[in-house]
Records
---
Amino acid sequence: MSGFVTGDGRTHIASKLMAESLVDRRVVATTHSELEYAILPDAKLVSIGGQSIFDRGGEALRPLVEELAATRGKHRIVVGVGGGTRVRHTVSIAADLGLPLGGIAQLVGAMEEANAVMLNALLAKRGSIVMQREHFWEMPLYLENGMIPIVISIPPYHFWEPPNEGGALPTHGSDFGLFMHAEVLGMKHIIFVKDEDGLYDRDPKRHADAKLIRHTTLEAIWNDMPGDLILDRKLFEVWRSARHVERVQIVNGLKPGELTRALAGEPAGTVIERGARQ
Amino acid sequence: MNAGKHAERLVIESALESGAAFDYKPNAMMPHVKVMKIGGQSIMDRGRTAVFPILEQLIKAKDKHQLLLCCGGGTRARHIYAVASDIELPTGVLAALGGYVPRQNARMLQMLLAEHGGVFMLHDDFEKLPLYFSMKCIPIMTGMPPFGYWEKPGENGRIPANRTDAGVFLTAEVLGVKRALFIKDEDGLYEDDPKKNPKAKHIPRIGVNELIARDLGDLVVERVVLTYLRAARFCHELQIINGMKPGMVTRALEGEDVGTIIYRD
């Protein structure tokens, strides 16, 4: 794959994509492969909910901090944090002010960053570190040394958030961002720590008879998506074309030990499996 | 379910929190900016014969219009994609790697335009655009959107779906600009590939829905841009022009419908 090719007014570098249209479906298909190198396959991603955990303050957070600290030496974990009620307030005000969609997307990450700093303050003496996005490739340094990197969940779409039909809200939110973080690094397991026992067929905060789903598959959720979903729809959408993430688990962080059980591979909360790729 | 047993959520009341509907009417931020892409393979890789005449037109226009230049990648980006895909790296890594070449190209244009106010900018400098324009500068940035590692894996192939065309479109959209300009080496859209079939018929105007319905195997812009065009609130037209033809850039900046217009219908 080297050498220059000229003759059509442009100077090309010889490669299998040389002078090709990257929009041409046939050309794009030549890069298709089911195989994909897994960069950090042993790491697990743990998401601490914004509304569900952080907005409840110390009583909800402190026990979780102990569980996270206890993972050292046992699991390699990357922790993501949500923004919670302040994100909703930001979006409400920004939308009322008529800021463009990309402008709203640019603003929300700051509220998560504040939660990342708070969690880091509690976990610092146990080896946590707030990871800036530009330091993406320092992840192995932290994990190799038993540290716990804390990442911002919102993906960096910022001003470039794609428009969506009708909506004022950016669709590339925290759940999607964390999923992508795990997927691009080849992780297999993501655990969302919330304030419910898992995924229900209806919102359990509003319906007393809502039924907990202990085990399900991506396929089943996609084909019959509950109206009130505890995770963003976008996560399931991208999971369908993902290569690495095999299991998404939702546990109740208000119940001691649930996160620890999930990290040990036990079926705590709700387990969603990808199953075989279509 | 857990209320009473555990600490309550400390909630800030807001429209979104209460589930109330809100009337979303965004305002255009900087609708008069001319957002344009300088093609990578089509323009930059041709060197001075293609680049210099375009820059001459831009220099003449710069006191009349606010110009924001966004660069494409080209053959070096293709080489990176080819090698990275050969070693089975994920789409998100390809998207991050794909950012290097357009940034190089933007830096090249900055050096060429330096004495006319060319300023290289990063995504993080986006909020400084009003400053650059009030100083009569020509800001130059990469066309790639900042998605990087967070670019979604594709259904087919591992080339990132959002590349520099998408980034240019989204830049125009967030600024509230109605028309995004793409400077390439073809007059726009043809019924067939004009590089392979010289008799291919030119399409001066086409609605995005019709274009999607035609389901062409190849296209002059990234496919995802058509999806965005359908959903966009501000950017409702793409104009693709041939920068190799003298005067085309000037005419497009004056609002002439040269090249091909793909519009939201």
---
Amino acid sequence: MPLGPEKFLMLSAVLFTLGVLGVLLRRGAISILMSIELMLNGANLTFITFARQYGQTEGQIYVFFIITLAAAEAAVGLAIVIALFRLRDSTDVDELSLLKW
Amino acid sequence: MLTELLISPVAVTLYEILMIVNALMLGVAAMTWVERRLSGVIQYRLGPNRVGPYGLLQPIADGIKFIMKEDVVPADANKAIFTLAPGLSLVAALCAFSVIPFGPTVELFGRQIALVIVNVDGGILFALGATSLGIYGIVMAGWSSNSKYSLIGGLRASAQMVSYELALVLSLIGVLLVSGTLRPVEIVAQQAGWFWNWNVFGGWQLLGFVIFLIAGYAETNRLPFDMPEAESELVAGYHTEYSSMKFSMFFMAEYVNMITASALAVTLFLGGYQLGFPVPFSGWSLWILQILAFVGKLAVLLFLFVWVRWTLPRFRYDQLMSLGWKGLFPLALINLMFTALVVALDFVER
Amino acid sequence: MESIAFLVLSILAVASALVVVLPVVRNAVVCALALALNLICVAGFFFLLGAQFIGFLQVIVYAGAIMVLILFVLMLLNVHDERHLGSSGFFQRYLGPLSAVGFVAILVPSLVVSSQGAEFPRAGAAFGTVGALGRELFTRFFYPFEAISLLLVVAMIGAVLLAKRRL
């Protein structure tokens, strides 16, 4: 079974979809952040697959930037979760309903 | 047919892996003996001297003791992660040694074989990745033990390792700037000739070497940075609840980490297997001498590890963290800028 | 040989992603460890595709630093087990997951149909190497490189300020 691009693209679509499912189904704030990381990984896999398909380095440069951005986003997101935890004493996103009318 | 299989590149890599894993495990056993005798010398007392001549069979006795002890698992511990954690620590520590060339390129079986297990393009990054993955062993051990001492010890240990990893990597980048390549095989090859060609002297990396050593002590959780496992502070930190073989795996992982950190320092800063002076002969006598030179340099750095442990007092945790972030990290940045200046002004012949 | 590696890695990746995602797994630390395993599997895919530098970056940065940070916060906050799905509405609980699964159900067969077992073209020798990426990064992508280092400093300052107990 030769490895072709469509196998990797299928896999990245599955990973991305699982990330979306995690964001929708999960209640803990940190679990939602982890599902977002899963989505970013699916996108990274797509980028690298196409970079290999066309033999370019641009796809890898984009993945380099996406990984760096994910680090920054995880740091700030976790800091926000810590700040919210100090307020509400729980990381459940269903309790963050102060702005609900 | 069978002969071809036995000398194929895959088989040669397998032999190298077998040799290295055996050598590392024997090195761990030897290090336990060295540690106890040397600490005795430093503290003006006899170390273990009963079990064999000069206590040389003490590691065997220790090993048998560890195997015979009862394996206690805390009641509410997460058993799967509790069991996996020491294995992960040991495997990560062993993997980090794969990129280190322990000998020159020898001529064997009719072709050139570089005495290194893995020679990928991103060589040093492999060792850094394995060290990063070793942190998981400690985090998992601390959390899965379901004990407050373990949790705090695990958190502190991993926070310390992550902080000092920064200074470690930055001090490495100085060497990469000077050498222009990430492959340890080529970095060592560039340090051939006289000993002033080594990266620590001729590559202007003395500050980098010192930073690497200090960060290495912190990465391997050795005194003066061993607050997370200090007996008087946190019972035993993240391995409080571990006994018998699992504890001994953590123990072995710590010593393998020590050996790997020393081996990295030798490869990147002290010229690896290079002799440091030119010799008129070549062939197998030279190659054996070079392998012995590598082991000798490794022994010197390991002696330094033990010496520092039994000489310096322990840092408090906040002192440790502020040293890592406010002391070593800016120093490593200065080293990087200085190295960049040196390379730009062509002071280095590479 | 490569297809066996791909098969094993993909089974492991999807299984660990399922552990992260499904609400059946209530313990957040187990989810975080499963995500770390998933990230290492994705790094394995990068190596299979020949992108070595990005693979190493994935292990060192993503699996070795970001996930450790997430594990820290989980243990510091002592996050309890997640409660059941609770008060989410109809759209979130049924329609959202249904459309996500529908996306995959449309994409995967069309991918299988469109490229019938095509292989990758041979990659150049310098495809995923550090040198090639470094060259691009410091010439064509120099401005984004500097911008992202600025972004990292801003994120660091922001994270420290946001998590402070008393400003």
